[in-house]
Amino acid sequence: MTTFTSSLPDDLLKNLDETSKELKTPKNKIIEKALKSFLDEIQRAKYAESFIRASKHNDIMAIAEEGMADYHRMIKDLEKDE
Q1: Residues 41, 47: contact at Cβ < 8 Å?
Q2: End-to-end Cα, the chain, rounded Å
Q3: Residue ranges covered by each domain of the chain
Q4: Which among 37, 52, 78, 81 counts the fewest CB atoms within 10 Å?
């Protein structure tokens, strides 16, 4: 594990210290969880944005619609077999 040093606003550090004591959790673990959560949120936003961009592209939409039609046919076939 790598160690790094950073500066944070005093009020944020105070809040971190209080939360650490309240949860009986080391500050570095709180920071690690918060950072991971934030980075995951950014990845989800990027993923969602890629779908928005794809939805504006006619060829990609046609492929997706064709795939959905195939999917619906497969579901109907499975239901018939039951």
Answers
A1: no
A2: 53
A3: 47-82
A4: 81
Q: How far is it, in rounded angstroms, from Cα 18 to Cα 15?
A: 5
Length of the chain in terms of residues written: 82
Residue 34, both tokens: 């918060």
Place of tokens 């077999």: 81
Residue pair 26/20 in contact (Cβ under 8 Å)? The answer is yes
Task: Please report, for residues 4, 38, 54, 55, 60, the alpha-carbon distance to residue 50 in angstroms, rounded to integers and kept in the order given.
Answer: 33, 19, 6, 9, 12
- Dist CA 17 CA 25 (whole Å): 10
Cβ proximity of 30 and 19 under 8 Å: yes
* Token couple for 40: 């995951």
Q: Which residue has the tokens 């210290």?
A: 17
Q: Does residue 65 register a pLDDT over 80?
A: no
